[in-house]
Amino acid sequence: MVSRIITTELINTIGIFPATAIVGPRQVGKTTLAKRLINILNKEGVYLDLENPRDIAKLTDPVLYFENNEHKLVVLDEIQQMPELFPILRSMIDANRVPGRFLLLGSASPDLIRESSESLAGRIAYKELAPFTVNEVSAGNQKLNTHWLRGGFPDAFLAKTDDISFEWHSNFIKSYISRDLPMLGLNIESRTIYKLWAMVAHMHSNILNMSNLAKSLGVSSTSIKKYLGFLEGAFLIRLLPSYSTNSKKRLIKAPKVFIRDSGVYHQLININGWDELINNPVLGNSWEGYVVEQIVQNAGNKLSFNYYRTQDGAECDLVMIKAGKPVVGIEIKYTSSPKITKSMQESFNDLNTSMNYIVTPNTDDYLIKENIRVCSLAAFLKDYLPEF
Fold first, then answer.
1. How far does CA 52 lie from the centroid of its chain?
2. pLDDT, mean of residues 8-37
3. pTM of the predicted model, to two decimals?
4. How many structural domains compose the chain?
5. What is the DSSP letter of 336?
């Protein structure tokens, strides 16, 4: 079993808040982790799957059920299926406000489960469970390559062959299109959802062009913004905002867009093996998206992230922000012998970051310039990211 880095943090949170919510995409391991937490905490618990008719029947009178299980950790899986429970959970918590009463699992962001933020404010802590990160599946180039190709969803990463992993992703995408996204409120034709998702995949690691998406799908930019909001709220895409400075330079303001899981991305663009990946023109874009997601998922809550690009061409792939200020600039290169470019140096100067990194798949760790270090992704995650 792969040990999830978030486990200790969740144990602490459950010991503080009456309700803890683990949110993340389907098939990411939320249920497995919740059951493991019950064992670790050595606490009596009950588990209800809100997509199972038998478990739903137990909540015919939810107040009675919760009162009868007042001293247990009640796990409610797929909580977005029954948002009407949130006001009842609030009253139960207020009647007996002790830590660790409810563990909620959801396949949508708090923004898409609006009732939770309205009803449980101050009573609940949210933690996102992402697919396996490269740190969780151990070090080594082969593991990194497999993780990059297949992504971090447990069943896909642990599949016996790349073909099985590719087929898993195909079924995952079909399921989201036919059931999950419509259930969250994205009420458009399945083929339109797929076309949008695939078009976003072809923009992966690039500036989001909302107008092009709208024109291609024959809908308004307002509709595209709404559709992308659902994909983002389901943890399927990442919109990385641009960093704005007070300088007079003309900046690109639109976000960059990424398919969050590299395995899903590769399935959407029909890459089904290592040779297909390393010989594909999208190799650099794929590596950039993969590195961005690994860094963001392994960073602490005190950090936020942007990218930086001017209309004159200065660009930084990832800017680490702490306390509102840029502290690190990161360039992401798929090469073992990176060079400092004029664009790179100009962006680091604009950002005035004290330290900058060029992150590669596998290279020696060295200073290429006084405040610019070349290192592998593994070294950055292990040795440098924790410093911030």
1. 27
2. 95
3. 0.94
4. 2
5. S
